[in-house]
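[audit] Reproducing an earlier prediction to check determinism. Same input, same settings, fresh worker. If the tokens differ from the archived copy the diff job will pick it up downstream; this log only records the rerun itself.
[audit] input (192 residues):
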Amino acid sequence: MLADGGLAFVRPVRAEDKAELAALHTRMSRDSQYLRYFTARRRQLPESELLRAVDIDRHLRMAFVAFVQGRMAAYACYIGEGDESGEIAFQVEDAQQGRGLGTLLLEQLAAYAYEQGLRRFTATVLPHNRRMLEVFRDAGFPRQVRRDGGVLEVVLEIDPTRHSRAAIESRHAQARACAHGRIAAKDEPEND
């Protein structure tokens, strides 16, 4: 369930998702693409990048995708770095940003990676990518942030702590309340 009470379907990425991933990339604004790749990108991703995005071994390389109303709206992955850590990256369609898809995918990635023996995630983020920094802050995982030149290096300890579990429960309770509010609003009779 998303922060606004909407629904998303999350599953591991599949090889046949290449076309949906390509379409997701084209729906992202130039700004969103820059925040993801740190450089201007072509509207079409090269076939080699699409293949790499769906090439997972479910241990050192894992990716999840989220669908909203039957269309891929977000993608997140980690690539193991060999020292109990994995580098993470996210893509969220502009029209779906701010709904909690990044947070939902981070929760899925962290739970899965922890079961695979990873203990931390690393991410390189541009300082003005406020939404991504908020996702990391609000996740509830212990984190370290340090500036390295023009970027921020974020380290998240993904061991499920009492604080991270409480943050997840709080987000889920808020999403349920939003969903109930949406349902109640639909059921109210219209005033003439």
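[audit] rerun output stored. Observation attached for the diff report: The domain at 9-187 is CATH 3.40.630.30 (Aminopeptidase).
[audit] end
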